[in-house]
Automatic annotation (TrEMBL):
<dbReference type="GO" id="GO:0016757">
    <property type="term" value="F:glycosyltransferase activity"/>
</dbReference>
<dbReference type="Pfam" id="PF00535">
    <property type="entry name" value="Glycos_transf_2"/>
</dbReference>
<feature type="domain" description="Glycosyltransferase 2-like">
    <location>
        <begin position="9"/>
        <end position="123"/>
    </location>
</feature>
<keyword id="KW-0328">Glycosyltransferase</keyword>
<comment type="similarity">
    <text>Belongs to the glycosyltransferase 2 family. WaaE/KdtX subfamily.</text>
</comment>
<protein>
    <submittedName>
        <fullName>Glycosyl transferase, family 2</fullName>
        <ecNumber>2.4.-.-</ecNumber>
    </submittedName>
</protein>
<keyword id="KW-0808">Transferase</keyword>
<dbReference type="InterPro" id="IPR029044">
    <property type="entry name" value="Nucleotide-diphossugar_trans"/>
</dbReference>
<dbReference type="InterPro" id="IPR001173">
    <property type="entry name" value="Glyco_trans_2-like"/>
</dbReference>
Length: 249
């Protein structure tokens, strides 16, 4: 049974994922909107074939692009989902029967199960994200590297999304480099500054968090790989900030 919910999906060359994510959310949502950043593949054609409204928009950043989607939704409630995400079947059935409109919350969060290839990454779970929200009461931020729904009035739901984060570890490493650079620039622009010891402290902290605090040490060798990648990402973010500070002088 479909609900009066608009699913919004931002895309760029998501031919691999777009059909499955649309079919997934159409089990719940009576409207699906794709905002595409001028894909060069068949993303938009596939979406239109499935009866989805497609709007093309130059990329405004993760939060900015998701906030841009909101104006096109005819429903008050929005389910924001990325192309590489899916709702588990248990989550689909839960939401079909969930009375989200008559609760006191402005938004609801889901857990995410993230994968690299076919490997579930334990240390990234539960990775809660607010994705179902009332657009009249809250919405996405438009500043910063990562978008999130800005509200304190949300409820955690006991359901999961699947997140096919990276095809393989090579993609993880290549994106980690870009993410470190972008995040360093954002933090620097916000006025944050690094000390000489920050790369070491935060790199070691990321390793400890992934392996010990999050239990990755017991998840197999791929969990160690992820912890090292996270440590490298954190280390390089502060190295880049230090370099920016030196260049400023």
């Amino acid at each position: 049974m479909q609900k009066n919910i608009t699913a919004t999906i931002i895309t760029l060359n998501e031919k691999k994922h777009i059909r499955e994510v649309i079919l997934n959310v159409q089990k719940i949502c009576n409207e699906v909107i794709v905002v595409d950043s001028f894909s060069s593949d068949e993303t938009c054609e596939i979406a239109r074939e499935l009866g989805v409204k497609v709007i093309e928009q130059k990329y405004l950043g993760d939060g900015g692009q998701k906030a841009f989607c909101e104006q096109f939704a005819t429903n008050e409630w929005i389910l924001s989902i990325d192309a590489d995400e899916r709702l588990e079947e248990e989550a689909v059935e839960y939401l079909k029967n969930f009375d989200y409109e008559n609760g006191d919350a402005d938004a609801y969060s889901f857990r995410r199960k993230s994968f690299i290839g076919k490997k579930f990454i334990k240390q990234w779970y539960p990775d809660r994200v607010v994705r179902l929200y009332n657009k009249s009461k809250c919405g996405y931020n438009t500043i910063g590297e990562h978008g999130k729904v800005e509200t304190d009035n949300f409820v955690d739901l006991d359901i999961d999304m699947l997140h096919y984060s990276f095809e393989n570890f090579g993609v993880l490493v290549s994106k980690a480099d870009r993410f470190a650079v972008n995040l360093a620039k954002v933090r620097y622009a916000e006025g944050k500054r690094a000390s000489w010891y920050d790369p070491f402290v935060h790199g070691a902290g990321a390793m400890f968090k992934g392996l010990i605090s999050k239990g990755g040490i017991f998840g197999g060798i791929h969990e160690w790989h992820v912890a090292f990648a996270s440590a490298y990402n954190s280390y390089m973010k502060y190295v880049i900030m230090l370099e920016m500070q030196e260049n400023e002088k």
